[in-house]
Amino acid sequence: MEVALSVFVGIFFAVAIYLMLSKHIIRILLGVSIFGNAVNLTIFTVGRVVREVPPIIPEALQTPDTITANPLPQALILTAIVISFSFFAFLLVLAFRTYQELGTDDTDGMRVAEPEGEPLPPLGY
Amino acid sequence: MRTLIFRTIAPYLTSLMVLFSIFVLLRGHNDPGGGFIGGLIAASAFAIYGIACGVSPVRRALYFHPMAISGFGLLLAALAGWMSLFFEVPFLTGLWTTVSILGLPVDLSTVLFFDIGVYLVVVGAITSIALALEEREHG
Amino acid sequence: MTADSQWLTFLALMLPFAAAALAPFLTKLLRHNAAWVLAIAPALMFLHFSGFLDPVSEGRALAGGYAWIPSLDVDFSWYLDGLSVTFALLITGIGTLIVLYSGGYLNGHEHQGRFFSFILMFMGSMLGLVVADSFLTLFVFWELTSITSFLLIGFDHSRSGSRRAALQALIVTGMGGLSLLAGLLVIWGATGASSLSALLATGDALREAPLYLAALLLILGGAFTKSAQFPFHFWLPNAMEAPTPVSAYLHSATMVKAGVYLVMRLNPVLGETVAWETILPVFGGTTLIVGTFLAVRQTDLKLMLAYTTVASLGLLVMLTGFGSHKAVEAAALYLVAHSLFKGALFMVAGLVDHETGTRDVTRLGGLRSAMPVTFAAAVLAACSMGGLPLFFGFLAKEEIYAALGFASGWSAALTLVAIVGNGLMFAIGFAVALKPFLGAPVETPKHAHEGPVLLWLGPLVLGGLGLIAALISTVSHRLISSPMSSAIAGEPVTVTISTVPHIGMPLALSLVTVGFGVAAFRMLGRLRGVMASVLNAIGWGPDKGFDQALAATTKLSFGVTRIIQSGRLDYYMTATFIALAAALLIPMIAFGEFPAAPAFPAMPFYEWIVLLIGVIGVGAVIYARDRLTAIVSLGIQGFAVALLFMLLGAPDLSFTQFMVETLSVVILALVMTRLRLSPTDHRPTSEKIGDVLVAGTCGAALGLMLLRVTQVPFNAELSEFFAANSRVIAHGRNIVNVIIVDFRGMDTLGEIAVVMITGLAILALVRIRSAKPAKAGQES
Predict the structure, then answer these.
(1) Please, which residues bridge with residue C300 across strands?
(2) Does domain A2-52+69-107 match CATH 1.10.287?
(3) Quick check: B118 and C670 CB within 8 A?
(4) Which of B128, C588, C619, C658 gives 20 to 30 Å between its CA and that of B117?
């Protein structure tokens, strides 16, 4: 299972990176979203995979009696999903506002912070 | 999107989802669920309501500003952690007690309040984002 | 050192900083009269350190201090012997007079309180520097003097000249400070000594260390920049942009001597080698000659004095490096004499400037009746500088000639250098002291009259001391000169020279010097013209070189920035991901850490289907031709991941993922329908191929890494702890939720704060209105 997941994660990363290398901000955003999923799956796979047994202790017991899925990566990923969603929303709104202000969705055209042909800084004191 | 059927069903759907989200929140400690999931369910509920009936009915229904709810959640979570000060144990140590409500024993803990805090933060922040975007859509 | 006196010394070292903190408030309250109150601090310190004169003159050295970072063997410690006590007395004594002088000089200046504050901070730093024992203490105070000097030179920060001078001094002395630090670390490593007292006890260890030359060069890098040795001398004359009290105090009497202090201090362990006795005299002698020649060129009183200071520092370095006891004695005597007369002359120059409005020597004259006290102070100081009998400078000069002599060609050459240097300094000293006061009165920008007591007290006392110290030479030798020389030489030395001239070679050389000086004085105008034309012919100096180097650095960094920060996001992304692929693949290739070839995974068919759905989803995102397809495809891959979580025993994750994907699709749809954007690709095919290559390599590298990681044995310790304790300690059966809200509650608290902050940021972004003037115009 880990083998199949590794290949799966590799494909996800490749697609996400390909999208993020684009100049179009919407494609970059889609890439970021897929990238988040790929990272989560990586954490999940690194914690090893157990099928279909959630890490929940049965009512009658103090500790789980069978091998369960690893709870630690799940706890990490759970919060990561929510946070990556809120950042995704932030990026989306940022892209939206940038488009409104600059009238372009091409990252080459977004040169407010680093304008082209910037003059030499002053050489005096 | 704003069909008659959708608009009619939306308030009921929303109420049901919010109720379900609270259920998910409270069972979270022993079964799948918890503050994050519950918060997301409730936030989607408000988002659906907003899409169906517009943003201002949602704001009226919430009464408080969503970010205020979020802030209150963060405060609650932090206060749940501070409780440990009174028992001279490290910050955020879980404290447990059992009270009797209407003859039923109910387990209360600082952890529960912490989880409610998480729930409120997620509900508030995500609802606020969704409503802000919907407002642009219609305004 | 007893506990009491240790505590007192610590207080004395901290007192100037306390006074610096108080100074602005006191100045607000008392205006320039605050000087009288503030001068109490250095006066008290002077009294405290003069208490050490007796024990030190008996040949004892007093050490004390406190642990600073015990784990690193770093102490805040001090070491008081003849050398450091003399320096401490000069710093606090002249410091007292300078504080008073500043009270008069900057009377009415709106930032006088700040000035007091800076100069007291400098005093504390300089004092710490000369009494420091541990290397770290020494370095920290060394850098503090550079920083306070920067603040003081740039005090008049509205002028670009000041700013340039301040920056230049900071860069030159700051680089020297780094060199010093490196040198100290080399010494620390070579000898194991982390303090001066321990180092002085190691004897020949350092001289015999293989890293001796490296240590020597690095230490000299620090000393030569601080003490303005050629070719680093250029910052010192530029530092004359500072108010005159600063020039008198930092740039003649104390700070610039820090480098000389350092070579004197390390003479016992670094000295007496060929390298030492070559480098120091050569650089010192060159600095002496260059300094005096450049001084001749100047007409500004302060600049004339500044270049002679450079020359004097060269003389001191030359003498310290000469390597005989006599030379060390001469250096000790000359250092004290120089601090007294140069401090006085600077204050005189400032006083003349303050009262007449100019310090151009060609535009001054006939002030003797208007400013008699100043004139007296100037003459006293100049006599000492010129080395006339009865003055302390005379003792120094006699000792210099006695030390150098004509024993070999080398010492004869140095003697010649000393005569030329001293002769020219004689001429300049008297030019500063006599030219403004004698002759017919000249019209000056301000009507001249004697300055207030605050202004003339300092130069008069220092000028007078140059006479008194020589008259009671037996006492001053016993208390100051002999202990200081012993400390420099590293073994007991007794200074005996008296002020009564006796016939001999030194006296003859003194007479030659005076004769040469008088001749130069009379021809100063013509010499100045010659020097000016020579310098014009050369047309380049280290000062100009500094500007060129700085401009070149700026241009270079601008060019580099332009290349690596092109302002194009796709370049940054490509670079980042190429680095990622390299970081993952290179170790794998270099260490042969590729994963073993895996067996074909045996999985139920529904898992294959879920994986397939995910792959189809991401593929569809790439190929989507319109917005809605792209959004839906994104949703598909997200739901596939959620299903995967569900199948692999993570229902919590699955629910969360479902909710998040739903919400993502909703908000994407909300935004995308407003943005008239197509998600299709517009890249030319050539770029696409490159991007596919980068993305494919990264994906493969990450997949391989993951495969390799899953092939090493799993350490389940942490997970087992949570499983075992979730119910027992935290009373919860859902282990994931227990980890989130209880075991790792602190993380979660941080994370929900982040969620909330992004919510606030989005709200702000949505509400913010464009500040563009065009739009503002539309609204109005």
Answers:
(1) C360
(2) yes
(3) no
(4) C658
